[in-house]
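Convert to structure. Protein one:
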Amino acid sequence: MHAEINADMLPEQHGGNLSGLTQRYPDAPRPLIDLSTGINPYPYPLSLKEEWTHQLPDVIAMAEAQRAAAQYYNVNEIVLAPGMQPLIFALACLRLKEHGRSRIVIVSPTYAEHARVWEDAGHEIIPATIEAVEGDVVILANPNNPDGRQVQPQRLLAMAESLAARNGWLIIDESFTDLLPQLSMAAYVTKRPNIAVLRSCGKFFGVAGLRISGAAAPAEWMPWLRIALGPWPISTIACHILPQMLKDTAWIDSTRRKLAEESAAWRNILAQYFTVIGHTPLFTLIETPEAERWHDYLASRGILIRRFATQPNWLRFGLPMQSRIERLRTALCR
């Protein structure tokens, strides 16, 4: 017989660990509310066909998905992948192959997988602030997760130029840039030999379970990325839904407006109980000396939020659906 799987036995998740909440708080009210991930609570409406689940991706369908993604992200070419981690690892391995073990500056705090994957690939990790970015490779998220910090493109271009003088790279994680397209550096990828941009469909489009990400990089890097990700880098379902989703400008425009309006109202609610220290339209970062108590209390009420081991006074709240607001208000009034 196999032992029962316990959430406490598994690696720590960055968010979305509803099974852990269920095991620790079996009597928590239902439905559970997951505010730990920064994912659009109003996902793109998908229409799926049964045959897509047993067919390998068609060559033309894959090409159409890549073309739609390149057009949406305003790049000449993009490599698609099943999530961000394979792209991060492929870039880390390419750096090791071309330049050996390098000093990787991670503008922190940020998405922890960047440091973990680059270190596992054999590089030296140097956490830093945006004011101190001396290294061989600089990695930052824009806007940043979890604090929403924004860096304007002109500053990033100057950073890339400085790095290029010593064969350095600039890698920008734009997972949350769909809502702030003016920050994107994707259009500069073809003009600079050392800039790569990482994008994700999971956050803004709300389809995180489909695991669709992409990388735009200098032309010389693209053959390596394609080899590293293989002939079927995304699923048949992803191939078919991407063109429709990325070309739906009416949905994209209305969703940007909706999320901006609702997130402003949600921040006003949170500000009644906490100190808001950063945000994007999909998440709000707060500070409180009672972070651990709030995290446990809300979990007992069936509400999962994100906490941070390295910042014990921080909590991150994702954007809830409007239909959940009254339940959240009641919980916050404890």
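Protein two, convert as well:
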Amino acid sequence: MLIYNVTVCVDRAVEFEWNRWMLDEHVREVLATGCFKSFSLLRVEADGVEDPTYSVQFRCASKSDLDRYESDHAPALRAKSLERFGEKTLAFRSLLYTVAEGHLKNPDQ
């Protein structure tokens, strides 16, 4: 499982509108591409970061699904975001590879 992570710093003046747009429009459009299985929207807290910051994580089954998203869908969806919010948001993207997940049992058990 791969996680396509988009970290977004949002101007406080548009934070409520951005959150609503993410859930009502953008995430739905991204999932409708068929390239991702699910998503999470997380609020990030970090030392020295004053503006609201979010992590939007989209899970995909393969690198080819992500590549298809990047080539066929991402440019238009990013343009819509830029048109709507301009410089009120700043995003950077990363790819996370799941190494392990779940629960670990105590070795003594």
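DSSP finds three helices and four strands in the chain. The radius of gyration is 16 Å.
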